[in-house]
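Blinded run. Sample ID left blank on purpose so nobody reads anything into the name before looking at the predicted structure. Input follows.
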Amino acid sequence: RPLQIMTLLTFNLSLLILLFACPQPPDENDPPLRNTDISLELVDTWTRSITLKAIVEDPTQSWGVILMRDDSIILETEVFDTDTTVVDYGLPAQTAFTYQAFFTEDSLILDSSAVVGATTLDSSSHAMDWTVQTLGIEGVLRDAWIVDENDIWVVGQIIMDDPDSSFNGTGRETFNAAHWNGSEWEMLRLSYGQPLEGIFVFNENDIWVASGVPCHWDGQEWTNYHLWNMGVLSEEDGGVPHIWGASPDDIYFVGRKGSIVHYDGVEFVKLESGTDINLTDIWGLDENDIWIVGGSTTIQPWGGVMLHYDGISMREIYQFHWPEDSGSPSEASTRAIWTDNEKYLYATGYSGQHIYDNRRNYFHKEESPNVWVHNKIRGSAENDVFSVGAGSEVVHYNGSTYYLHQELKEVGWGYTLWRGLDVSENLVVVVGDVAYNYAPHAYVAIGARN
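Blinded prediction complete.
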């Protein structure tokens, strides 16, 4: 089991076992000992890791710590502050462990902490019952939102038959959204009727959708916000189709050429992103913890970026441009992110699945069964995360393992491009399209816990 910590030194296991068995008392001629009482605190648990903090009261100089898990020594290191945080990573799910820390000085054990017990979180079930439907005679679906099992929204473009040609004389009628009421899909033409890319729902009277510009439903009417006409964005900036909001008066829109726009309930303001790379996803925990990722691959500039916004300043996690920057890591091709905690960020894109440890600025490439590019990742909890993409792939992470839902691999003969999804505690909605007969056809897959 790999151990990932802030500082890790190699050590002689047999020597440490001997020290534990035969600790040497301090000599009477030694200088007076500092106040070296050591304590061990449990910081948090995850399905695959346990985080602890070892603390001493008064370190006037560096000090040593040994950490034991059950009957095994897992760490010896030197610390230069009052505490050190240890992440014991690679553990099995739903397993109990005990930990104890020992204070050392010059190879002597001078104090020990109380024993701390911790249990890793349980993993969730991969099992789902899936229902797959097509909407319209042609179409592309890009995003979804679950209110409950009787209130589901999908957005994109949906083309229906219009036998009497009453819509525009072509025999085809175009919609940009559909709503599931528990028994059937209702086709909708929201706002100005253009194809939609993103949706964010606060409640039935507070709904945001976006294509290039934001549109808002207040329970009475739709309002379009043409950011170019308002002077918020220039014509060169491009649109902002991806939405996340901490509250109705704290909403962010991100999109092409690094564009980020904030709405405070009264006005829209452009934020400086520090990048010209297309931004493809945004997710946050609250108004002070917001993550943004992007990747441009088919148009210039080619590259990838990840940003963190604390409500005041924008921090760059990485930014790569090809071919100017060489040797870029695989996480630089991330297209989508999701999290429900401040510790880990779940990421997907052109190079598979990653988990980003925010505490140590560390990306871990995951062993996942998907082989195609993935476009979206969402979850209901840190042990219940779904990722979707090309090749009809829907992958579930249960906090311990990754599982490819083979029943959905048959959708669209294995060539469906899943573009968006939403996840609730008991429901998953995946949307996308597959091309046949020279036209795209819209698909919705609804998964229920069985």
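Unblinding after everyone has recorded impressions. Residues 383 and 399 are 4 Å apart (CA to CA).
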